[in-house]
Amino acid sequence: MTVTKSQYSVAVLGAAGGIGQSLSLLLKMNPLISDLRLYDLANTPGVAADLSHTNTTCQVRGFMGADQLKDALKGADLVVIPAGVPRKPGMTRDDLFAINAGIVRDLCVACTEACPNALINIISNPVNSTVPIASEVFKKAGCYDPKKIFGVTTLDIVRSNTFVAEAKGLDINDVDVPVIGGHAGITILPLLSQTYPKCDFTAEEADKLTVRIQNAGTEVVEAKAGAGSATLSMAYAAARMAEACLRGLSGEPDVYECSYVASNITELPYFATKVRLGPSGADEVMPIGDITEYEADWLAKLKVELTGSIQKGVDFANQ
Ligand code: NAD
Ligand code: LMR
After folding, report:
1. ipTM value of the model?
2. Rounded to whole angstroms, what are the CA distances from 82 to 46, 212, 244?
3. Given 183, 235, 239, 285, which residue is catalytic?
4. Domain 8-152 - what CATH class?
5. Protein residue with least CA distance to atom 7, ligand 1
6. pLDDT by residue (tens digit) across 122-153?
7. Topology (CATH level 3) of domain 154-310
Protein backbone atom coordinates (compact mmCIF):
# COMPACT_ATOMS: atom_id res chain seq x y z
CA MET A 1 0.00 0.00 0.00
CA THR A 2 1.34 3.47 -0.91
CA VAL A 3 0.93 5.98 1.87
CA THR A 4 1.58 9.39 0.37
CA LYS A 5 0.76 12.04 2.98
CA SER A 6 -1.57 12.44 5.92
CA GLN A 7 -2.17 16.16 5.60
CA TYR A 8 -3.24 17.92 2.46
CA SER A 9 -3.58 21.30 0.76
CA VAL A 10 -7.06 22.01 -0.53
CA ALA A 11 -8.24 24.99 -2.63
CA VAL A 12 -11.90 26.03 -2.83
CA LEU A 13 -12.75 28.11 -5.93
CA GLY A 14 -15.94 30.09 -5.33
CA ALA A 15 -15.25 30.03 -1.59
CA ALA A 16 -17.26 33.15 -0.69
CA GLY A 17 -20.51 31.77 -2.13
CA GLY A 18 -23.41 29.92 -0.55
CA ILE A 19 -21.78 26.50 -0.88
CA GLY A 20 -18.24 27.83 -0.66
CA GLN A 21 -18.53 29.33 2.84
CA SER A 22 -20.20 26.35 4.54
CA LEU A 23 -17.92 23.93 2.70
CA SER A 24 -14.84 25.90 3.78
CA LEU A 25 -15.98 25.67 7.41
CA LEU A 26 -16.40 21.89 7.14
CA LEU A 27 -12.99 21.52 5.43
CA LYS A 28 -11.35 23.70 8.11
CA MET A 29 -12.58 21.14 10.67
CA ASN A 30 -11.11 18.17 8.76
CA PRO A 31 -7.89 16.84 10.36
CA LEU A 32 -6.71 15.52 6.96
CA ILE A 33 -6.36 19.12 5.74
CA SER A 34 -3.48 21.29 6.96
CA ASP A 35 -3.67 24.09 4.39
CA LEU A 36 -6.93 25.55 3.08
CA ARG A 37 -6.96 28.19 0.34
CA LEU A 38 -10.14 30.18 -0.30
CA TYR A 39 -10.43 31.77 -3.74
CA ASP A 40 -13.25 33.93 -5.11
CA LEU A 41 -13.69 37.11 -7.13
CA ALA A 42 -14.57 39.07 -3.93
CA ASN A 43 -14.98 38.75 -0.14
CA THR A 44 -12.43 36.00 0.54
CA PRO A 45 -10.29 38.15 2.89
CA GLY A 46 -13.30 38.43 5.22
CA VAL A 47 -14.29 34.78 4.98
CA ALA A 48 -10.68 33.68 5.58
CA ALA A 49 -10.26 36.06 8.57
CA ASP A 50 -13.49 34.76 10.08
CA LEU A 51 -12.55 31.09 9.61
CA SER A 52 -8.99 31.65 10.84
CA HIS A 53 -10.35 32.26 14.35
CA THR A 54 -11.65 28.69 14.67
CA ASN A 55 -9.23 26.67 16.81
CA THR A 56 -8.52 23.81 14.42
CA THR A 57 -5.00 22.94 13.24
CA CYS A 58 -5.70 23.73 9.58
CA GLN A 59 -4.25 27.03 8.30
CA VAL A 60 -6.56 29.12 6.09
CA ARG A 61 -5.68 31.84 3.56
CA GLY A 62 -7.86 34.00 1.33
CA PHE A 63 -7.10 34.80 -2.32
CA MET A 64 -9.15 37.34 -4.26
CA GLY A 65 -9.38 38.12 -7.96
CA ALA A 66 -7.82 36.54 -11.04
CA ASP A 67 -4.32 37.90 -10.17
CA GLN A 68 -4.24 35.68 -7.08
CA LEU A 69 -5.76 32.53 -8.59
CA LYS A 70 -2.50 30.73 -9.36
CA ASP A 71 -1.14 31.44 -5.86
CA ALA A 72 -4.31 29.88 -4.47
CA LEU A 73 -3.70 26.76 -6.56
CA LYS A 74 0.06 26.23 -6.35
CA GLY A 75 0.80 22.90 -4.65
CA ALA A 76 -2.86 22.03 -4.01
CA ASP A 77 -3.62 18.30 -3.70
CA LEU A 78 -7.34 18.79 -4.21
CA VAL A 79 -9.28 21.62 -5.86
CA VAL A 80 -13.01 21.88 -5.15
CA ILE A 81 -14.99 24.09 -7.57
CA PRO A 82 -18.39 25.46 -6.51
CA ALA A 83 -17.86 28.71 -8.55
CA GLY A 84 -20.76 29.82 -10.72
CA VAL A 85 -24.38 30.89 -10.69
CA PRO A 86 -27.16 28.80 -9.10
CA ARG A 87 -30.66 28.12 -10.47
CA LYS A 88 -33.80 30.14 -9.84
CA PRO A 89 -37.31 28.61 -10.00
CA GLY A 90 -38.26 27.60 -13.54
CA MET A 91 -34.66 27.04 -14.69
CA THR A 92 -32.97 23.76 -15.56
CA ARG A 93 -29.34 23.15 -14.68
CA ASP A 94 -28.56 23.38 -18.38
CA ASP A 95 -29.82 26.99 -18.32
CA LEU A 96 -26.68 27.75 -16.25
CA PHE A 97 -24.38 26.53 -19.04
CA ALA A 98 -24.07 29.96 -20.72
CA ILE A 99 -22.37 31.44 -17.62
CA ASN A 100 -20.85 28.49 -15.78
CA ALA A 101 -19.20 26.73 -18.74
CA GLY A 102 -16.76 29.62 -19.21
CA ILE A 103 -16.12 29.94 -15.47
CA VAL A 104 -15.23 26.24 -15.13
CA ARG A 105 -13.10 26.32 -18.31
CA ASP A 106 -11.06 29.32 -17.10
CA LEU A 107 -10.57 27.96 -13.59
CA CYS A 108 -9.43 24.62 -15.03
CA VAL A 109 -6.96 26.35 -17.37
CA ALA A 110 -5.40 27.89 -14.24
CA CYS A 111 -5.33 24.43 -12.60
CA THR A 112 -3.44 22.96 -15.58
CA GLU A 113 -0.81 25.67 -15.09
CA ALA A 114 -0.56 25.81 -11.30
CA CYS A 115 -1.49 22.31 -10.01
CA PRO A 116 -1.71 19.91 -12.97
CA ASN A 117 -1.59 16.84 -10.72
CA ALA A 118 -4.31 17.86 -8.27
CA LEU A 119 -7.60 16.00 -7.96
CA ILE A 120 -10.46 18.21 -9.17
CA ASN A 121 -13.97 18.02 -7.63
CA ILE A 122 -16.47 19.89 -9.81
CA ILE A 123 -19.70 21.08 -8.19
CA SER A 124 -20.62 23.88 -10.66
CA ASN A 125 -23.67 23.02 -12.76
CA PRO A 126 -24.48 21.64 -15.20
CA VAL A 127 -22.13 18.93 -13.91
CA ASN A 128 -23.08 16.66 -16.84
CA SER A 129 -21.35 19.20 -19.13
CA THR A 130 -18.79 20.92 -16.84
CA VAL A 131 -16.90 17.64 -16.22
CA PRO A 132 -16.40 17.09 -20.00
CA ILE A 133 -15.34 20.76 -20.29
CA ALA A 134 -12.74 20.35 -17.52
CA SER A 135 -11.48 17.13 -19.10
CA GLU A 136 -11.05 18.78 -22.52
CA VAL A 137 -9.11 21.65 -20.92
CA PHE A 138 -6.70 19.19 -19.29
CA LYS A 139 -6.38 17.23 -22.56
CA LYS A 140 -5.49 20.40 -24.47
CA ALA A 141 -2.87 21.28 -21.87
CA GLY A 142 -1.35 17.79 -22.17
CA CYS A 143 -1.89 16.89 -18.52
CA TYR A 144 -5.18 14.97 -18.61
CA ASP A 145 -5.49 12.10 -16.17
CA PRO A 146 -9.02 10.66 -16.29
CA LYS A 147 -8.61 9.40 -12.73
CA LYS A 148 -8.34 12.94 -11.36
CA ILE A 149 -11.48 14.74 -12.51
CA PHE A 150 -14.69 14.13 -10.55
CA GLY A 151 -18.20 15.48 -10.94
CA VAL A 152 -19.61 15.76 -7.42
CA THR A 153 -22.88 13.80 -7.32
CA THR A 154 -22.65 13.03 -3.60
CA LEU A 155 -25.71 15.14 -2.81
CA ASP A 156 -27.83 12.65 -4.79
CA ILE A 157 -26.57 9.84 -2.55
CA VAL A 158 -27.06 11.91 0.61
CA ARG A 159 -30.64 12.69 -0.43
CA SER A 160 -31.39 9.10 -1.43
CA ASN A 161 -30.12 7.79 1.89
CA THR A 162 -32.25 10.33 3.76
CA PHE A 163 -35.46 9.76 1.81
CA VAL A 164 -35.15 5.95 1.87
CA ALA A 165 -34.38 5.89 5.61
CA GLU A 166 -37.45 8.08 6.24
CA ALA A 167 -39.73 6.03 3.97
CA LYS A 168 -38.66 2.64 5.33
CA GLY A 169 -38.05 3.57 8.99
CA LEU A 170 -34.36 2.60 8.80
CA ASP A 171 -31.44 3.91 10.87
CA ILE A 172 -30.18 6.72 8.65
CA ASN A 173 -26.57 5.99 9.60
CA ASP A 174 -26.77 2.53 8.00
CA VAL A 175 -28.46 3.31 4.69
CA ASP A 176 -26.52 3.35 1.42
CA VAL A 177 -28.24 3.84 -1.94
CA PRO A 178 -25.97 3.98 -5.01
CA VAL A 179 -26.94 6.66 -7.55
CA ILE A 180 -25.73 6.36 -11.13
CA GLY A 181 -25.88 8.27 -14.43
CA GLY A 182 -25.37 12.02 -14.10
CA HIS A 183 -26.55 14.99 -12.06
CA ALA A 184 -29.65 16.57 -13.63
CA GLY A 185 -33.29 15.51 -13.62
CA ILE A 186 -33.82 12.11 -15.21
CA THR A 187 -30.07 11.51 -15.54
CA ILE A 188 -30.07 10.95 -11.75
CA LEU A 189 -30.86 7.26 -11.26
CA PRO A 190 -30.99 5.90 -7.70
CA LEU A 191 -30.57 2.12 -7.67
CA LEU A 192 -33.11 1.36 -4.98
CA SER A 193 -32.79 -2.35 -5.76
CA GLN A 194 -29.19 -2.13 -4.48
CA THR A 195 -30.11 -0.35 -1.23
CA TYR A 196 -28.09 -1.44 1.76
CA PRO A 197 -29.44 -2.87 4.05
CA LYS A 198 -31.50 -4.93 1.62
CA CYS A 199 -34.95 -3.45 1.32
CA ASP A 200 -38.09 -4.27 -0.65
CA PHE A 201 -40.00 -1.49 -2.42
CA THR A 202 -43.41 -1.81 -4.07
CA ALA A 203 -43.49 -0.53 -7.65
CA GLU A 204 -45.36 2.53 -6.42
CA GLU A 205 -42.85 3.21 -3.62
CA ALA A 206 -39.90 2.81 -6.01
CA ASP A 207 -41.44 5.21 -8.52
CA LYS A 208 -42.30 7.84 -5.91
CA LEU A 209 -38.82 7.76 -4.36
CA THR A 210 -37.03 7.73 -7.73
CA VAL A 211 -38.93 10.76 -9.00
CA ARG A 212 -38.46 12.64 -5.71
CA ILE A 213 -34.69 12.02 -5.78
CA GLN A 214 -34.51 13.17 -9.42
CA ASN A 215 -36.38 16.39 -8.52
CA ALA A 216 -34.84 17.02 -5.09
CA GLY A 217 -32.67 19.91 -6.32
CA THR A 218 -35.76 21.59 -7.74
CA GLU A 219 -37.58 21.01 -4.43
CA VAL A 220 -34.91 23.18 -2.74
CA VAL A 221 -34.80 25.77 -5.56
CA GLU A 222 -38.57 26.25 -5.25
CA ALA A 223 -38.48 26.41 -1.45
CA LYS A 224 -35.76 29.08 -1.63
CA ALA A 225 -38.01 30.99 -4.06
CA GLY A 226 -35.32 32.85 -6.02
CA ALA A 227 -32.62 32.92 -3.33
CA GLY A 228 -30.59 30.12 -4.95
CA SER A 229 -30.28 26.34 -4.72
CA ALA A 230 -29.02 23.83 -2.16
CA THR A 231 -26.02 25.18 -0.26
CA LEU A 232 -25.94 23.58 3.22
CA SER A 233 -26.73 20.01 2.12
CA MET A 234 -24.37 20.52 -0.81
CA ALA A 235 -21.56 21.71 1.44
CA TYR A 236 -22.13 18.63 3.62
CA ALA A 237 -22.03 16.37 0.55
CA ALA A 238 -18.96 18.07 -0.95
CA ALA A 239 -17.10 17.81 2.36
CA ARG A 240 -17.87 14.07 2.39
CA MET A 241 -16.58 13.68 -1.19
CA ALA A 242 -13.45 15.75 -0.48
CA GLU A 243 -12.70 13.64 2.59
CA ALA A 244 -13.16 10.42 0.57
CA CYS A 245 -10.71 11.71 -2.06
CA LEU A 246 -8.11 12.57 0.62
CA ARG A 247 -8.56 9.24 2.42
CA GLY A 248 -7.98 7.55 -0.93
CA LEU A 249 -4.88 9.67 -1.60
CA SER A 250 -3.50 8.75 1.82
CA GLY A 251 -3.59 5.06 0.87
CA GLU A 252 -6.59 4.08 3.00
CA PRO A 253 -8.15 0.98 1.38
CA ASP A 254 -11.80 0.44 0.45
CA VAL A 255 -12.89 4.06 0.09
CA TYR A 256 -15.90 4.22 -2.24
CA GLU A 257 -18.16 7.06 -3.40
CA CYS A 258 -20.42 7.44 -6.41
CA SER A 259 -19.08 10.11 -8.75
CA TYR A 260 -19.47 11.28 -12.36
CA VAL A 261 -16.14 10.39 -13.97
CA ALA A 262 -14.51 9.28 -17.21
CA SER A 263 -15.84 5.76 -17.55
CA ASN A 264 -15.86 2.63 -19.71
CA ILE A 265 -18.80 1.13 -17.85
CA THR A 266 -21.32 2.12 -20.54
CA GLU A 267 -20.88 3.43 -24.10
CA LEU A 268 -20.89 7.00 -22.70
CA PRO A 269 -17.47 8.61 -22.04
CA TYR A 270 -18.60 10.01 -18.66
CA PHE A 271 -20.94 8.26 -16.27
CA ALA A 272 -21.54 8.13 -12.52
CA THR A 273 -21.19 4.84 -10.68
CA LYS A 274 -19.42 3.82 -7.51
CA VAL A 275 -15.71 4.61 -7.69
CA ARG A 276 -12.89 3.24 -5.56
CA LEU A 277 -10.76 6.17 -4.44
CA GLY A 278 -7.05 5.57 -4.07
CA PRO A 279 -3.58 7.13 -4.27
CA SER A 280 -4.06 8.10 -7.93
CA GLY A 281 -7.67 9.30 -7.63
CA ALA A 282 -10.42 7.18 -9.20
CA ASP A 283 -8.40 3.96 -8.98
CA GLU A 284 -11.31 1.80 -10.10
CA VAL A 285 -14.67 2.65 -11.66
CA MET A 286 -17.16 0.03 -10.54
CA PRO A 287 -19.80 -1.59 -12.77
CA ILE A 288 -23.52 -0.86 -12.47
CA GLY A 289 -24.36 -4.34 -11.15
CA ASP A 290 -27.76 -6.02 -11.34
CA ILE A 291 -30.70 -3.68 -11.84
CA THR A 292 -34.47 -4.08 -12.18
CA GLU A 293 -36.47 -3.65 -15.38
CA TYR A 294 -37.81 -0.36 -13.98
CA GLU A 295 -34.24 0.92 -13.44
CA ALA A 296 -33.17 -0.35 -16.88
CA ASP A 297 -35.95 1.71 -18.48
CA TRP A 298 -34.70 4.86 -16.76
CA LEU A 299 -31.12 3.98 -17.74
CA ALA A 300 -32.05 3.83 -21.43
CA LYS A 301 -33.77 7.23 -21.21
CA LEU A 302 -31.04 8.93 -19.23
CA LYS A 303 -28.33 7.86 -21.69
CA VAL A 304 -30.00 9.90 -24.44
CA GLU A 305 -30.03 13.11 -22.39
CA LEU A 306 -26.56 12.54 -20.94
CA THR A 307 -25.05 11.97 -24.40
CA GLY A 308 -26.28 15.41 -25.50
CA SER A 309 -25.00 17.15 -22.36
CA ILE A 310 -21.57 15.55 -22.73
CA GLN A 311 -21.30 16.57 -26.39
CA LYS A 312 -22.36 20.13 -25.54
CA GLY A 313 -19.49 20.38 -23.05
CA VAL A 314 -16.93 18.86 -25.42
CA ASP A 315 -18.01 21.19 -28.25
CA PHE A 316 -17.83 24.25 -25.99
CA ALA A 317 -14.31 23.44 -24.84
CA ASN A 318 -13.12 22.91 -28.40
CA GLN A 319 -14.84 25.81 -30.12
P1 NAD B 1 -23.43 31.33 -5.09
O2 NAD B 1 -23.84 32.35 -6.08
O3 NAD B 1 -23.90 31.48 -3.69
O4 NAD B 1 -21.83 31.25 -5.03
C5 NAD B 1 -21.07 31.12 -6.19
C6 NAD B 1 -19.74 31.80 -5.96
O7 NAD B 1 -18.96 31.64 -7.14
C8 NAD B 1 -19.86 33.33 -5.71
O9 NAD B 1 -19.21 33.68 -4.50
C10 NAD B 1 -19.16 33.93 -6.91
O11 NAD B 1 -18.45 35.13 -6.63
C12 NAD B 1 -18.19 32.81 -7.29
N13 NAD B 1 -17.68 32.93 -8.65
C14 NAD B 1 -18.32 33.27 -9.79
N15 NAD B 1 -17.44 33.31 -10.81
C16 NAD B 1 -16.24 32.96 -10.30
C17 NAD B 1 -14.94 32.81 -10.84
N18 NAD B 1 -14.70 33.04 -12.14
N19 NAD B 1 -13.94 32.46 -10.03
C20 NAD B 1 -14.18 32.22 -8.70
N21 NAD B 1 -15.37 32.35 -8.12
C22 NAD B 1 -16.39 32.72 -8.93
O23 NAD B 1 -23.85 29.91 -5.67
P24 NAD B 1 -23.90 28.49 -4.89
O25 NAD B 1 -25.25 28.31 -4.31
O26 NAD B 1 -22.70 28.39 -4.02
O27 NAD B 1 -23.80 27.47 -6.13
C28 NAD B 1 -22.63 27.39 -6.90
C29 NAD B 1 -22.76 26.36 -8.01
O30 NAD B 1 -22.93 25.05 -7.47
C31 NAD B 1 -23.96 26.58 -8.94
O32 NAD B 1 -23.57 26.37 -10.27
C33 NAD B 1 -24.95 25.49 -8.51
O34 NAD B 1 -25.82 25.11 -9.54
C35 NAD B 1 -23.99 24.38 -8.17
N36 NAD B 1 -24.54 23.33 -7.30
C37 NAD B 1 -24.19 22.03 -7.58
C38 NAD B 1 -24.64 21.00 -6.80
C39 NAD B 1 -24.23 19.59 -7.11
O40 NAD B 1 -24.85 18.66 -6.57
N41 NAD B 1 -23.21 19.34 -7.89
C42 NAD B 1 -25.48 21.27 -5.71
C43 NAD B 1 -25.82 22.59 -5.43
C44 NAD B 1 -25.34 23.63 -6.24
C1 LMR C 1 -28.90 20.26 -6.57
O2 LMR C 1 -29.10 19.10 -6.94
O3 LMR C 1 -29.38 20.70 -5.50
C4 LMR C 1 -28.02 21.15 -7.38
O5 LMR C 1 -27.68 20.58 -8.60
C6 LMR C 1 -28.56 22.53 -7.53
C7 LMR C 1 -29.76 22.62 -8.40
O8 LMR C 1 -29.77 23.49 -9.28
O9 LMR C 1 -30.71 21.86 -8.22
Report:
1. 0.99
2. 18, 24, 17
3. 183
4. alpha beta
5. 83
6. 999 999 999 999 999 999 999 999 999 999 99
7. L-2-Hydroxyisocaproate Dehydrogenase; Chain A, domain 2 (3.90.110)
